[in-house]
Amino acid sequence: MFNFNFNNSFHNLSDDFYELCNPEKSIDPKLVIFNSDLANELNIDTALQYNPEYLTGNAILPGSKPAAHAYAGHQFGHFTMLGDGRAHVLGEHVTEHNERYDIQLKGSGRTIFSRSGDGRAAIGPMLREYIISEAMYHLGIPTTRSLAVSLTGDNVYRETSLPGAMLVRIAQSNLRVGTFEYAVRTEDKDNIKQLADYAIERHYPEIQDDQNRYLSLLNKVIEKQSKLIAQWQSVGFIHGVMNTDNMTISGETIDYGPCAFMDTYNPTTVFSSIDQYGRYAYNNQPSIALWNLTRFAETLIPLIDDDESTAIQYAETALNTYRDQYIQHYMHIFGQKIGIDHITQDDFQIVIDFLALLEKYEADYTGSFRKLATQQFTQLDIYNNEDVQEWYQRWLAFIQSTSNEQEAYTLMQSVNPAVIPRNHLVEEAVSDATMANDYTKLHQLIDAIHNPFSDNHDTQYLNPAPPNERIYQTYCGT
Ligand code: AMP
Ligand code: MG
User: 7 alpha carbon to ligand 1 midpoint, in Å?
Assistant: First the structure.
């Protein structure tokens, strides 16, 4: 039905890992947004959009075996048992190209893993996740994706009563560092091996025959995450809740809560209202990723070698490569951002100097890089400063001496987005939808984020918020 091709390999694992259970029924499901492009990519029939009962779990697709997944995680550094407390994986859909994706409902009701929550989601956070995950995708950053958001017809109670909604989320899998942390804490010693073998088969089949495939798994995840975090940094994305349960094994960005893109460049930026100590600030993201990877490595110790100290040594050696890999990716992308394809460590100072000027003059991060790429940098206010002019002349001379100037601009325009989902626009679009049931701005914003590397947009999408509309704090609103 609707061309779904379900094959639920996760259910071959021990039933410690999931609980079969159906989503809670919704009163009156109504679709508000459907991602036809994504449906086409997945070979799913777009007629699905006219059947919101399937997008909210009121009706179950043939072959679907809804389940809530078990996992644990370190939240702000503290270990907790978690699991899908308001989500159901409907099943794994296998495309014509033999790609496997979890189809998940988020906001689909309580499960045995629910703690105090109601199992539901309000429309605002689901629309936020839709917008930001799709923006990340179009920026070329690995991410889970959003197929649809529907209103459920129920109200949910947060600080006030809000329309309830459900998101259909698509992921390469829902395996998280937290799934591994859970596995080692179950009674069955075989669970961690089962899970690691499953993760390898699903995400990294190329390492299956490696001499030490569990060490290879660790290396693969380190590789993926070091690149992912460098990509986040390059567009000023702040995840906001980098708990270990929100870090995937596939290397996709997952769980968009109080995340946001930085407007004014300031590396200490924190948006999330619950992140009081700035644990997940922009400039902490690279080291937090390593902290999370270390928790992941710990779960693999019994598999890496029978001798614990040998295993620890191997794992430490692997973790020690993270920093260099991250720096390589960071230097590569930031070199490209200023027009140099393979920047050397010695030359990288020019990037550092530019970032220091952006910080000093509180300049718009996205706009400054984009204007540099489109040769309009000298029109920006920041250019009135003598040290900025000096930097600019030094940079121009550098570009002219090291590369083809035109190629440098082309490269820069391909990596420096003109459009990011700016907080004030996201808030405005979400607020119109929530408060006035008006989706005009939401659709316009989604259109804009589909083409982030084009300047051909209404100026509101290109410019930072006017000072009175700036947003400094975001909320989970779960
Ligand atoms: P998150 O902050 O989305 O990563 O969620 C962390 C944990 O809280 C997960 O186990 C979620 O399932 C659970 N959770 C979040 N919101 C709710 C809710 N409204 N009802 C039940 N569980 C929730
Ligand atoms: Mg989560």
Answer: 26
